[in-house]
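Moderator note: this is an archived Q&A kept for reference. The question asked for a predicted structure of one protein chain; the sequence and the answer are reproduced below.
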Amino acid sequence: MPRSIFDAYVSGGAREFFAGAFASAADRRRAVERAERPLEAPVLAALAAQNARFAPSDARSAQLAALAEGAAAVVTGQQVGLFLGPLYTVYKAATAIRAAQALATESGRPVVPVFWLQTEDHDLPEIASCAIPRAQQEPLTLRMACPPENRVSVAHVALPDEISACHATLEAELGKLPHARVHLERLARHYRPGAGYADAFAGLLAELFEPEGLILIDPRDPALAPATAAVHRRALDSAQALSQALLERSAALERAGFAAAVHVRADAPLSFFHPGGGQAPRHRLVRGEQGFAEVGGEGTHTRDGLLAALERDPLCFSTSALLRPIVQDTLLPTAVYVGGPGEIAYLAQLGPLYEAFGLQPPLVLPRARLRVVEAGTARLLERLGLDSARAEQGEDVLLAELARTGAADPAPLTPEAFERTLADGFERVLAQAVGALPPLGDQLQAALEKTRANVRMAASKLAEKYAGVLARRDEGRVQELQRLRTLLQPGGVPQERFYGLPYFAARYGERAFLERVLSAIEPFDPTPRELRP
């Protein structure tokens, strides 16, 4: 099984696939110095216009001014999900803010946090949900209906009328919490029928991080399209060479024991094409005998035809996962990119692309990984004798451990003793039976050894079932553990990948919760941490 490149990178390995080490202060300083440059005038104008749509912010104005003067940026980003999507969206933004502050202190230069709104993607089912925990019940998942075959970039998708039903559900579930009114009203102001997914997400995130001056950028802005056209032109012109370089990098990753996170198709351009215009469905392209064919579409296009379409309307093209960082760092002076485990895995593939486009890769920084441990969760942990990290182990493993160490009514035999008793009993009976026999021939001796092995295996399997029964005989303990895992590992995934912000903001207050997040983050130490609000 391939190793995790994220784990290797966090622990200081896999250096050959990244531009430096985030734990090295010298590498961090070099990254800031390399990245510093004034924004191109059209990019600065577009960025200023986008951020002017949000409520006025002196902090944001100061950050824009710093970018105009040549400040480096710490960039992160995410798909524009319902009610900001999972908690790690907030953790990403907060990590970028804390990292920018720390880098500014280290370097003595201004460094600006920027959030890249991933609005080019078209995977609506992935973003159209938000989950909240509920006391003594299974989590509640709010989900918007959406066509599973949607191919329109989410930048051009509006929230349907049923968003009002989501607000009503949130009101019913969270309305009695101390700070619900402020947060629910803010959600309703942004996530309203007819508003774009991207506008709702951006407006909410900008307001929540207004004191820190978080800058947001939407790459589907027509004003930015001319600046990205050169990237798409080269992706088309050099499709064969770029895919070959990426395939060679994938092979290098595999030789080092890692898997390539994103499959690379030979000769396929890294751009998506929108044949009906920027707001129309988009399609991946594959090279065929007649030109470039649309995957999931009906058209086939020549290289010259695609380049002509790019010239007429640059928004007819959008990025794949592998090309998105190149567009990002063409537009922005990115010193550091803050990413999650999945992103870091595919960023390891991109060295050849950066070289081909004449760009310096940014330093890659893992986002904060936080577990919210509320008072009730802390009491459960104490009662079960666990800490929050151990509580993320598998349920069967934890139940077996608790059965050994914490049962009020200890079993007469442990599973290990049960297995030994079975096996030893068989050996005693076997020894008595064999002792009464004349010497065994080789054939019978081999059959005897095979029987002995089968009995041992059967005893082991029976002991496993016995252990499972022991582990689950304390029904109250089983229920407590299952409740704990629902809080910390819902659906078998880390809490930050499952629950959204609304519950925590409604219970603890938006600003109070965000300040706890910010204060819990050590920017260059990605060790998972507890957050106790």
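Archived answer notes: The domain at 1-371+494-523 is CATH 3.40.50.620 (Rossmann fold).
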